[in-house]
Automatic annotation (TrEMBL):
Similarity section: Belongs to the peptidase M16 family.
Domain annotation Peptidase M16 C-terminal: ranges: 212-388, 682-856
Lineage: Bacteria, Pseudomonadati, Pseudomonadota, Gammaproteobacteria, Alteromonadales
Positions in coiled-coil regions: none
Protein name (database record): Pitrilysin family protein
UniProt xrefs under SUPFAM superfamilies: LuxS/MPP-like metallohydrolase (SSF63411)
InterPro entries hit by this protein: Metalloenz_LuxS/M16 (IPR011249), MPP/UQCRC_Complex (IPR050361), Pept_M16_N (IPR011765), Peptidase_M16_C (IPR007863)
Matches recorded under Gene3D superfamilies: Metalloenzyme, LuxS/M16 peptidase-like
Length: 950
């Protein structure tokens, strides 16, 4: 869906190339408004400053917060060959200092003001965005305006070299060190000719990044970063007239510059198929991707192609699913998507096959599915389902204030008006059967494509026949290879301005106001807890049933997960396809899932359809289909997913670390969803037995948030009135004691470009009164990029893309985890930093740390109740951990009264580095021997499952 795709792309947390936002070249003819467009509008005011900056203002006083988004019309499509990746690199550079804002203030100050901030770059643009409590609004104006107009004079060689290391670490983490990471590079090089704006990836080539100079940075800034090439959106609890005055003060003096010339569409064609392959060091399963050239964004065909992708691959009625999964049993979940960008577009069919499957067979299966679609097409019900889902998605795409700021900014910059949000959804709703079949035959069916095969490096026999080796350059990580850098104060002449550009003060701090919670109990014992909020005409709910993996039978871990998945596969009176269609016709989402301690049936829907969706939920829960064939398919898919995870270093690290902390006899010691051996042992009878024993209203709670009164929620919940059962007590998990001295463990992933590091120990259940104290005490160690781990490992050293520490919430003893993915050749140095920062945390934690942490947490609470999901999470925490309804206010009270002595006690008691274990997942050939210098003995070498090797 174009609407959602735009939002997802703009929410990139400094990511690149993952999604593509909309762009304006050709606009479809106006169509009748959809129900969503006619029922809800986003009011805004837009105007342009004398220097060319377009400003969009939107008032939303539902929460005491303000969001800002600055969209700059420059992405990787504006780069020059030999300087690829520069738009994304410049985004990183822009988060440093400027003439009037000190170095590091952007990354540190906004979180410390209780806000969040980030940026993203895609093929066609760059966006910067923040959300803060409204008392920090003036500071946000100061920071953002200085970045746009006054940052280039402060750029120095040391900052340039540091950000090079950060971006290269990001590339290693997201491309070089994970399965199929090079796919985008391979496809782009084959699909787009040399010199085309999409011939390279958004992250670019490492050699180009390393070659970047200060002159390149200045040239890029002067060419693209000016007001006339940007849109500023301010949304939230604002006064229009006051905001206009503030915008003029802070942004009005920025030099106008020359606007960038618009890019004309540059669609491409293929004369014949291009078949390429890559032997992937990390992949454990073969994958084939077909990519077809299409059209630029906002043409009529773009909307039809988006619908086509959904019809081909979304759900059990889709032809790719029926052919490749059900009939041929070659893959677990094929998918397709349309990407239409500013100057060109593409359509992708992506199939990760089962283990050892020949991709020739998968390719033939795709062609069989396309033949079927050409002959039989699709039903009216399938197309109607897409449109119903789109209506619901419209509301969720503007749920938060930041959502609205991002949408308005992107539509204004790329579609010519913030109001295009309504036209976009109308165009989506106007897609017809003829449109879909026309674009299918014009762009996809029997048309040339780029066919890329990525297979495990030791299985070249699986590639599509006739494929040529893809041009992939693997980086070699060599000790001492990266240049050292030193950041020094920069001497420059400050740009004269009429207005004082020193840091503005805070305004009055908004007060915390918790929402009202209501409760009810049904006759069968099921608890109902809810919050009524009418800002949007939608409802989110989650029915949680205690149990989950906690109650799996011995030796058959994964039973709860398979049982939950089986509840999604039809009912006694509906096939899986019929159930999916019934949910889709409501424009809803409804599914059952399992985690370590619960089974959860969750959904979202327009409020007017909530009773109908609850009828379907009751049918799913109380009348399972228990189809043997579906069980066998789900079991096979689960085994495939387990195999897939064996090539993911981050997943390996997470699973092995948990096993080291908890062992085999604890619910957290075994991977969620089980192991190959445990899943193979599960039968359909095991799943039925679990259902009969565990699925009971006596241990269930229905959590509901949205635009319904308590009486309406309870009335709809009566669909579950016939549900009966007995309560079951979750057995106590084995107590876990901390180690008496640190031990280092190592898992070898040959030729890894990064090392995944985990450090930690077990502490307390999340229900313990001290749990929140530990969480708060951790804030300045690893609670975000402004904390010590991120500041040291990323900002000061350039070793990583990110480093954090955290405590997951659970009913058993949760782990304290400090983690990062670092460049391979600084593994030892990074471990030493973890050791130092954690070991010396208590002696170095001073009053100013406590003051900053208090400010961050108290102010961040102003954003705690903004979205339906945040409210739903709060309700689930209340029931899961038996918390008071005002627990967030109680936590704020703890923060306000916390003393330095109390925080020191918590750190000493629970975060003792000498009771922690260390785990490294990386390249043993180059790093294992070095790690002995950490001082904790010879590392214990494990396999990828956590078993000791030698």
């Amino acid at each position: 869906m174009k609407l959602q795709k735009a939002l997802i792309a703009s929410l990139l947390l400094t990511l690149w190339g993952c999604s593509e936002p909309p762009t304006p070249q050709q606009t479809a003819q106006p169509q009748p408004a959809s129900p969503a467009a006619s029922e809800l509008r986003v009011d805004y005011e837009t105007y342009t400053l004398e220097n060319g900056l377009t400003v969009v203002l939107h008032v939303d006083k539902s929460d005491p917060i303000v969001a800002m988004a600055t969209v700059v019309h420059v992405g990787s499509n504006r780069e020059k060959p030999g300087r690829t990746g520069f738009a994304h690199f410049f985004e990183h550079m822009s988060f440093n200092d400027s003439e009037n804002v000190p170095k590091g203030a952007n990354r540190k100050m906004i979180p410390e003001l209780g806000g969040t901030r980030n940026g993203g770059t895609w093929s066609d643009g760059t966006i910067y965005y923040e959300v803060v409590p409204k008392d920090a609004f003036d500071k946000l104006l100061w920071i953002d305006s200085d970045r746009l107009g006054y940052m280039i004079n402060t750029v120095d060689q040391g900052t340039l070299e540091r950000e090079k290391q950060v971006v290269k670490n990001e590339k290693r983490q997201r491309v070089d060190n994970r399965p199929y990471g090079h796919m985008d590079h391979v496809v782009r090089k084959a699909l787009y000719p040399q010199g085309h704006p999409y011939n390279w990836t958004v992250i670019g080539d490492l050699a180009d990044l390393q070659a970047a100079t200060l002159d390149d940075v200045r040239e890029f800034y002067n060419q693209f970063y000016m007001p006339s090439n940007a849109t500023l959106v301010i949304a939230g609890d604002i006064d229009i007239q006051q905001t206009k005055q503030k915008v003029e003060r802070w942004f009005g003096e920025i030099k106008a510059g020359e606007p960038s010339a618009p890019l004309e569409p540059q669609p491409v064609t293929l004369e014949a198929d291009k078949k390429l392959y890559h032997l992937d060091n990390f992949a454990k399963l073969p994958l084939v991707r077909l990519t077809y050239p299409t059209v630029e964004q906002y043409s009529k065909d773009a909307y039809a192609l988006d619908a086509l992708a959904r019809l081909l691959s979304n759900g059990k009625n889709a032809v790719l699913y029926k052919t490749l999964v059900e009939e041929l049993k070659l893959a677990p979940s094929p998918n397709a998507w349309s990407s239409t960008d500013e100057v060109a577009g593409s359509f992708t069919i992506n199939v990760q096959a089962n283990a050892d499957v020949q991709l020739d067979n998968v390719y033939a299966g795709i062609q069989q599915a396309l033949d079927d679609f050409a002959k039989n097409g699709f039903t009216d019900a399938q197309l109607q389902t897409i449109k119903a889902e789109q209506e619901t998605a419209f509301y969720y795409s503007i749920e938060s204030i930041l959502d609205k700021a991002l949408q308005l900014g992107i539509y204004n910059e790329y579609a010519g008006s913030p109001g295009f949000i309504e036209q976009d959804i109308a165009n989506i709703s106007a897609v017809t059967r003829d449109d879909v079949m026309r674009v299918f035959k014009q762009y996809i069916y029997q048309q040339p494509a780029v066919i890329a095969s990525f297979v495990p490096k030791d299985q070249p026999e699986l590639i599509v026949t006739g494929s040529a080796k893809a041009p992939v350059v693997e980086e070699e990580i060599v000790p001492g290879q990266e240049p050292e850098f030193e950041e020094k104060p920069v001497e420059y002449t400050k740009t004269p301005t009429q207005h004082d550009r020193s840091e503005p003060p805070l305004s009055e701090l908004p007060t915390l106001s918790t929402p009202d919670i209501w409760r009810n109990t049904l006759a069968n014992g099921m608890e109902v807890i809810g919050i009524t909020t009418t800002e949007l005409p939608v409802v989110n709910f989650a029915l949680t049933i205690d149990g989950g993996q906690w109650l799996d039978p011995a030796g058959k871990t994964g039973t709860a997960l398979l049982m939950a998945q089986m509840l999604n596969e039809g009912t006694a009176t509906k096939t899986p396809q019929e159930l999916e269609q019934a949910i889709g016709q409501l424009g809803a989402q409804l599914s059952v899932a399992a985690n370590r301690d619960a089974i959860t049936l969750s959904g979202r829907v327009l409020a007017r359809h909530y009773p109908a969706l609850m009828e379907l939920a009751a049918e799913m829960l109380l009348a399972p289909r228990w189809d043997e064939n579906e069980f066998n398919r789900l079991k096979s898919t689960r085994l495939t997913r387990i195999k897939q995870s064996e090539g993911n270093a981050a997943r390996i690290a997470s699973n092995v670390f948990s096993h080291l902390l908890y062992g085999d006899n604890h619910v957290a010691g075994v991977p969620m969803g089980g192991t190959k051996e445990s899943v193979e042992a599960i039968t359909l009878d095991d799943v039925k037995a679990y259902y009969d024993e565990v699925i009971s209203p006596k241990q269930a709670t229905l959590h509901v948030v949205g635009a319904l009164a308590p009486e309406a929620v309870t009335a709809a919940a009566n669909a579950l009135s016939q549900w009966q059962g007995s309560a079951i007590t979750l057995p106590a998990q084995p107590a876990v004691t901390a180690v008496t001295q640190p031990t280092v463990y190592f898992v070898d992933v040959p030729d890894a470009k990064q090392s995944v590091i985990y450090v930690g120990k077990t502490v307390l259940p999340a229900s313990d009164p001290d749990f929140y104290a530990i969480d708060f005490a951790n804030e300045r160690l690893g609670g975000g990029m402004s904390a010590r781990l991120g500041q040291t490992l990323r900002i000061q050293k350039g070793y990583t893309y990110g480093a954090y520490s955290y405590l997951p919430e659970a009913r058993y003893q949760v782990p304290f985890i400090a983690a990062s993915q670092v460049r391979t050749n600084v593994t030892l140095e990074s471990l030493q930093i973890f050791k130092e920062l954690i070991g010396q945390y208590q002696p170095t934690y001073q009053q100013d740390d406590l003051d900053v942490a208090k400010n961050m947490v108290i102010k961040a609470n102003s954003r705690r109740f903004e979205t339906l999901n945040s409210l739903l999470d709060m309700l689930q925490n209340i029931s899961r951990f038996d918390l008071a309804e005002d627990y967030i206010a109680q936590q704020q009270g703890f923060v306000q009264s916390a003393t330095l002595e109390e925080i020191h006690r918590v750190i000493n008691t629970y975060l003792n580095e000498q009771q922690m274990i260390y785990l490294v997942v990386g390249d043993a050939a180059t790093q294992l021997e070095r790690i002995e210098k950490l001082g904790y003995g010879k590392p214990v070498v494990l396999d990828i499952y956590g078993n000791k090797l030698h």
